[in-house]
Design a protein that fits this description.
5-stranded mixed sheet; two-stranded parallel ribbon
Amino acid sequence: MRKPEANQAAGAQSQTGVQEPIRVPDLVALGNANNLKGFVTISANVPVVIEFFSAGNPQSDALAVSLEKAVRSLGGRTLLVRIDAQASPEVVQAFAIQAMPSVVALIKGQPVPLFEGDQPLDHVNAYLNRLLQVAQENGVAGALIVSDEFSGPAEPTLPPKHLEAIEAIEAGNYQGAVAIYQGILLDSPADALAVAGLAQAKLLERTRGVDFDAVLGSAPQNQAEALLKADVLVVIGHAGQGYQTVLTRFAVADKDEREVLRKHLLELFSISQPDAPELAQARRALAALLY
């Protein structure tokens, strides 16, 4: 996505505090690993609906029609991004997609699972209306305008090492990203972006190759199982449930194990949006257990 000029920054707020509309070429876009970051940025202004489809799949074909009609009827309050699962397997893996078609959303960069399989148009409308409510509750209530003069939200310029780490993550080289972020933190221990990036890279490496269905269907019997289930829940966008999995174990753990659990939980916290309600709730719960 092209970066806007300074006076066209779509993510900026006017003097009244209202988000300015983002100009886009269409309300439906084709996504892939190369342009996904741009859509993540847009999700700070409007919820972005991501449809994972498989070409030639009857359910995918049917859902595509209903989903596009529903999104267009909302008049720019959300953006639909269609991702071909066969052409972008790395994106499918990153979102832990298990079935085709599947639909998730992004709000402030955080994934929100919506549904799997074909759905009637009225069900799709209901899902999207609920998504807009959740987005508004989280301060995401911008708008899109279809225009030939395409602009995207202004993206902050990242230092070269940060960009290198992000490229490593996108390439699936999570260990490489961990090493880069650790190097950044040696020089700048207070770099919050590096702290969050390191936690994310370590999380992705820990969950690489994990059978998500088996983990999600299990009842953790020990520390390792509890931490793995928490990791998987955070990866698929259920951060609140992930935090609670660790907190449940924390409540019955001894002093030594509690310290391991506490450090792991704080690392997961660093990945979250600072204003996420589930983060505030989990911090309060942890404080109550500690004191």
